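Working notes for the structural subgroup meeting. M.R. asked for a predicted model of this chain before we commit to crystallization trials. I am recording the input and output together here so anyone reviewing the notebook later can reproduce the run.

Input as submitted:
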Amino acid sequence: MLDTNIVSHIMQGRDAELLARLTRLPVGQAVMSSVTLAELEYGLQRKGQPARLRNALAQVVLRMDVLPWDEAVATCYGELCATLEAQGINLSDFDMMIAAHAVALDVTLVSRDKAFAQVPTGANQRLRLEIW
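Returned structure, recorded in token form:
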């Protein structure tokens, strides 16, 4: 599952190493959360929807499944937030939602945001994280 910052770098098309790494993945293996799509849409709105970035996002969405946030993910989100809060750890709402999505689906989250390293790796809530 690709985090927002990874998809953003893909859209910009300037990171040859990232693009090469992505092309080595089997077709259909890279996905994004619907929360990531929402965060990207918000960013486009804030920037006045530049045509180049709007087109780049459309191209990414054509090639990658966008996974819906459902009841199981919402439950995982509540548990994860409570666990982190009890430990004094605070992540942004979007980051928590994306982390919960990856945990609930038991997929690896690919990001460049080291804040995700704070997410617990206990038996019930294990975030698998790769920093690209």
